[in-house]
Amino acid sequence: MRIGIDPGACEGNAVCEALAPMVFELDDRAQARVIDDVVATDGSVPDEHRPLVERAAEGCPRLAIQISR
Ligand code: SF4
Question: In the structure, which protein residues have their CB atom closer than 6 angstroms to any atom of ligand 1?
Answer without folding.
Answer: 5, 10-16, 32, 60, 62, 64-65
